[in-house]
Amino acid sequence: MMSQFEPNSDMYERERIVLEYIKNNSDLHHNALLKLIVPQFMAKTTFEKTRNSLLEKEIISVTAKGNMKFYHPTENYEQRSYQHIERTTNNFFHDLKSKIKRLDTDYPHKDIDEKIKISNSLLRNLLQTDNGFTILDSAKNPKKTLYRDEHLMIQQLIHKVIDIIRNDSDFDIIYPTIVSYLGIIMPKNSLNS
């Protein structure tokens, strides 16, 4: 069973194929590129979705010459990706802080399923945000923790969410479900499992 956090290998394989063909055939317009990839590697609609995904992630760019579209790998993609990670991680971080600030008053009035959903979502998002800061720390200076304050604040926010769960009247039902869910996104006992 694959969790939503594990990469979909088919998707990444398709993205790799389309990116590789674009990189090696930058002089080919959309329809010529389509003929190289479809149907050998994927269907036309799959190609369109894959191309759209690469455009959305800004991995590739498009230029129009007349009525033809030409694709090419985005220049300075590595630098731009770090800027994107930094912007989205910071925005997400501030959004999470405000959501958790309101949690004390909102949480007790929810039904059990909503409490579980909110708790899982907040904890997952806090862990993903912390991962974003870790990636930025590694990219900027692997010998120093530049986002120390953010990491500490995330640790405190995780504690606050767990504390709200702990003090809730439905704790005995909610907590085991949360721990079970977190087991999906936590490291396994072995890299081979």
Low-confidence stretches: 1-5
Q: Give the percentage of residues in beta strands.
A: 5-15%
Major sheet summary line: 2 strands, antiparallel
Through-space gap between termini: 12 Å
Kindly name the structural category: mainly alpha
Q: Radius of gyration, Cα only, in angstroms?
A: 22 Å
Overall helicity: 55-70%
Total number of β-strand segments? 2
What does the model show?
With 193 residues, the chain is mainly α. It has 7 helices and 2 strands. The protein has helices at 9-24, 30-37, 44-56, 77-106, 112-140, 148-166, 171-185; strands at 60-65, 68-73. A two-stranded antiparallel sheet has the order 1-2. Strand 1 and strand 2 form a beta hairpin. The radius of gyration is 22 Å and the shape is elongated. The model is unreliable at 1-5 (pLDDT under 50).
Q: What's the short version?
A:
By secondary structure, this protein is mainly alpha-helical. Helix content is about 65%, strand content about 5%. A two-stranded antiparallel sheet has the order 1-2.
Keywords:
193 residues; mainly alpha; two-stranded antiparallel ribbon; 2 strands; 67% helix; elongated; disordered N terminus
